[in-house]
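Practice problem: predict the structure.
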Amino acid sequence: MSDLRTPEKDRLLLLHALNMTMGLEWIEAAPATGGFANDEVRMRLAHDPCRYVLSRALISPAGQAFHYSTGALALVSAVVRKATGHPLDEFARANLFEPLGISGGGWNRYRGDTDAGGGLRLRSREMAKIGQLVLAGGRWGERQIVSKDWIETSTAPKIEATDDQLYGYLWWLGRSRVGRREVPWIGALGRGGQSIRIVPELDLVVVVTAGYYQDYSPQAFRVQYSVFWDVLRATLPRG
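Answer:
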């Protein structure tokens, strides 16, 4: 892909993909049925998905602005495969899922790489295990599955995102107000309403699954969030 290199694109680092600050043009806030109006669809149809992502125009310097992109996750998946010699799904199964006792329902691949932006099927209890792992600083029982340093680094705020939220390395960082109290949380927020929210100060993990896959309206997002908010309100002491 040397023909795509420019001095500006040479400044792109893995961390920019992890915190969604690559600065590459990307249109995704439209239903996937929108066809070629959606960069994610075009990427999946491309012969070389990573080349498609890196061919996008640079609209801001790397590291300066948050712009969510499933294309960034395609690059992360390719980096994991190249660095470890295993596709992301195989690497995750051996180093994360099996130690947590997660069997999973499969993880899709396209063009030879694992679909890091979706396609992973987990039960609610299995999703909750991932949340509990983060809550425990990467520890599961007597075993340190993920280093505590990485848990702390990846969940620390890196950039201001959307809807008054911050963003770490693939983690959303938000705050919810219940009465007079504001409670911070760490979130894995997926398309369609799938979510894991971790509330460290309450020792709480809340998993929600839903099916709003083509609904990008504010109402749909409110419905998805309200389940978490109801659990949070019921958990907090009254008064």
